[in-house]
Specification:
This protein is mostly helical. It contains 13 helices and no strands. The protein folds into two domains: 175 residues, no CATH class; 97 residues. 75% of the residues lie in helices and 0% in strands.
Length: 345
């Protein structure tokens, strides 16, 4: 039986061969490696924490706004209280009515506390997200002052709100109900296959709206300046993955909300899962943009290693080098001795 030739340890593996033959696969592997090295899952968990923390201040602000609306419209307040009393009769309805009165009376305090808490949670969320996105680029840029950093985070948070508002508006315009009304107004609702076409158009428009928002997030939220056009591919990747995730998440939440535990904690679980996986998708897309060869020039220059200055003394062990100082010392001693004798005489 012939002996098997030993395998060369330096030979390329199967994955290395596939990466060399397929540039897109090499890009995916490099992006995944960058994602893992930058501890992206750790940052995604921190962003999820601040997302959950921001829910309660936002609810307080919502209750405060509702309190101001009800306080200004006594007819609406009376109608709402009557419905509550009819739905929950007896002492429970009376307690709920008193709770509503207390909430309306302290609407200013609730709103102020909610705004302060929301500002703290929002700035923490934005700082964590920007740090997570910046970490994908490797070395962080020089740190700015505390005040300048917070002002930059406030501007980024406001910009994100504007981007979200535009995306939500475009998504609402792309909704199937509005599209169906437009098709019905044009008299095309009876055309065969129009329902499938409406669904496809809605998905495409939704992906397009998400594409614009995620491209802005990947390009502008990191503390590394990046042109929008250089983040377009990563933004499209994020939009498609986000649309798939929303489709899968719908079935997941439907399964979770069936049980009694899901009815109580389902919304919180849904928000946690949504925030965590959405952040992971954005971070991987950012790693994809960072490992794009055309974006290498935007990476910060690595900090050089510290220079260590160590004096070096080189000894010459030759006989001449050893005897020369001794001879000089002997001659100096003889000269001093003669000088002292001359003074003694």
């Amino acid at each position: 039986m012939p002996l098997r030739k030993p395998k060369d340890p330096n030979a390329p593996s199967f994955l290395d061969k596939q990466r060399a033959a397929r540039p897109w696969l090499d890009h995916v592997v490099r992006a995944g490696k960058r994602y893992q090295e930058s501890r992206a899952d750790f940052f995604a968990a921190g962003t999820t924490y601040f997302s959950i923390l921001a829910i309660f201040p936002l609810l307080m602000v919502a209750f405060s706004v509702l309190g101001f609306v009800l306080a200004a419209d006594h007819h609406l307040l009376t109608e709402l209280q009557n419905k509550v009393t009819d739905s929950a009769k007896g002492p429970m309805g009376h307690d709920i009515k008193n709770l509503m009165d207390q909430a309306i009376a302290s609407r200013g305090t609730i709103g102020l506390i909610g705004l302060l808490g929301g500002a703290y949670a929002g700035l923490g969320w934005m700082a964590n997200l920007r740090m997570a996105l910046t970490s994908q680029w490797g070395e962080e840029p020089p740190k700015q002052s505390f005040l300048r950093t917070k002002l930059s985070d406030v501007g980024a948070l406001l910009g994100l709100f504007v981007a979200l508002a535009i995306t939500i508006g475009l998504t609402a315009l792309a909704g199937s109900n509005l599209t169906e009304q437009l098709v019905s107004a044009l008299g095309l609702d009876g055309v065969w296959g129009m329902g499938v076409d409406i669904r496809i158009v809605s998905i495409v428009l939704s992906i397009g709206a998400s594409w614009l928002m995620f491209t802005w997030v990947i390009a502008k939220l990191p503390r590394i300046p990046l042109p929008m056009r250089n983040a377009a591919k990563a933004g499209l990747l994020t939009a498609v993955a986000f649309e798939i995730f929303k489709y899968i998440g719908t079935f997941y939440l439907h399964a979770v909300l069936r049980g009694p535990a899901g009815a109580a904690f389902g919304p919180i679980i849904g928000i946690m899962v949504f925030a965590y996986f959405t952040t992971r998708i954005i971070l991987f897309a950012t790693a994809w943009a960072c490992t794009d060869p055309k974006n290498r020039k935007f990476e910060p220059a690595p900090v050089p290693d510290p220079v260590v200055i160590a004096p070096r003394m080189v000894a010459d062990p030759s006989p001449a080098a050893v005897l020369a100082p001794a001879g000089v010392g002997l001659l100096a001693g003889l000269g001093i001795s003669r000088l002292l004798r001359g003074r003694g005489r």
